[in-house]
Amino acid sequence: MNRPLVEMDNVSKSFGGFTAVESINLNISEGEFLAIMGSSGCGKTTTLRMLAGLDQPTQGEIRLNGERINELSTWARDTPLVWQNLALFPFLSVTENVEFGLRMRGVPKAERRQRAGQWLDRMGLAEFVNRDIGQLSGGQRQRVALARSLVTEPPILLLDEPLSALDANLKVRMQGVLTELQKEIGITFVYVTHSHSEAFAMADRVVIMSEGRIEQVGTPQEIYSTPCNRFVAEFIGGKNIIEGKVAEIANDIILVKSDHGMFETSRMAGERVSAGDPVTLYVGAEDIRLTASCEEGRNRQRCRVIGEEFVGAMMTIYLQTETGLELQAQIPYAGRAALPMEDGRWVRVSWDTQATHVLGARI
Ligand code: ATP
Questions:
Q1: Are residues 277 and 295 in the same domain?
Q2: Of 194, 198, 250, 294, which is most buried, counting CB atoms within 10 Å of its CB?
Q3: What is the pLDDT of residues 164-199, one digit of tens each?
């Protein structure tokens, strides 16, 4: 396997007595689009600042292409960071802003102009080269900031909520610009965001952080279908969480008894649970089936429909069992008309053994 572009080994950052980032282990591959998410203050920006060279780790090692970079200055490591407020120089023209990094590296003027011009062309900004920054729209400024960061051809681009100041339409357009650009030039993006839709739509892998630690790293699909613990399940908006106790384990099937009935899940390799242990089960909303009738049994419930919501081409159906357990199912919008309901309100809900996951404890 190829060596990762970035390796963070046991990296921590403290400010005085406060630990903002605690013992992070994270490898980032070449050409990967990695999103970092988590609640406010969980250490996302601090992680990015350490990669950018704006903060030094208090403990651990960061390597870029196998070389330790903990002590390398921002300029020496070439890991530019694009901020939410873009930090463009208002007293310089568009071209001068884009050239800035090359000027700092002593690149001769003619070459600077040519390389800046190429990037401005690529970003669709050729007609604005002599404009002042203040005469540009939000989206244009965004593209200038990207051109300024990419003109030095860095191996990695760090982005800290770059789209959060834009309106909804422009945000979606810029998401397209960013993902296309990243695939086209093939460089690594590390992208901090609060927006689930942004992270899950754009990233190859998503990192979920909480209180300075990494809770889970995985593809969007892995995180949605198998969140590793209750924090991650709730963070991604998952609602189908059931507390119970292991009643029996037989043939790698874990039988769980809860106040809401009996549930079953298959035991994963390495999973260590025994009869009597408390467990938390999770089922993805897309794994819940709604039918007119089904036999009584495990992973089956009679539910009342308590709400419905359109999410693009999909619908979220809000359900409640007779014992008060709230569940959510996600079904294609087209399937809604055919949804079988008793008295217009009751449906049968079921899901597969393999779709039931045991959530782990937080580390
Ligand atoms: P947000 O989503 O709100 O931007 P974040 O996840 O990016 O948050 P960080 O900016 O990394 O969070 O901050 C993590 C924690 O470290 C916060 O509690 C913050 O107050 C603290 N912190 C960050 N920088 C400093 C500093 N220079 N001095 C002291 N504490 C700091």
A1: yes
A2: 198
A3: 877 888 788 888 888 988 998 889 999 999 888 899
Do 16 and 161 belong to one domain? Answer: yes
d(CA 26, CA 218): 11
Same domain, 163 and 257: no
Instruction: Name the residue with tokens 């999103």.
Output: 35
CATH of the domain at 290: 2.40.50.100
Task: With beta carbons less than 8 A apart as the criterion, state whether 205 and 193 touch.
Answer: no
Residue 216 and residue 95 share a domain: yes
Q: Is 40 in the pocket of ligand 1 (CB under 6 A)?
A: yes
Q: Is 43 in the pocket of ligand 1 (CB under 6 A)?
A: yes
Q: Give whole-number Cα distances, 342 to 185, 290, 291, 328, 335, in Å.
A: 55, 12, 10, 18, 17
Residue range of the domain that includes 100: 4-233
Q: What is the pLDDT of residues 22-34, one digit of tens each?
A: 999 999 999 999 9
* Ligand 1 centroid from CA 137, angstroms: 30
Higher pLDDT, 87 or 43: 43
Separation CA 98–CA 115 (nearest Å) = 9
Query: Sorting pLDDT into bands at 50, 70 and 90, what band is 270?
Result: low
| Statement to judge: residues 162 and 276 lie in one domain | no
361 pLDDT band, cuts 50/70/90, is: low
Residues 211, 109 within the same domain: yes
Closest residue by CA, ligand 1 atom 27: 15
Query: Of all protein residues, whose CA lies closest to atom 10 belonging to ligand 1?
Result: 45
Contact between 191 and 163 (Cβ < 8 Å): no
Q: Given a cut of 80, is residue 308 above it in pLDDT?
A: yes
Task: Single out the residue in 233, 248, 266 at which a domain terminates.
Answer: 233
Site to probe by mutation for ligand 1, drawn from 36, 42, 161 as the one with most ligand atoms within 8 Å of Cβ, is: 42
Question: Model pTM?
Answer: 0.87
- pLDDT value of residue 85: 67
Q: How far apart are the CA of 54 and the centre of ligand 1, in A?
A: 13
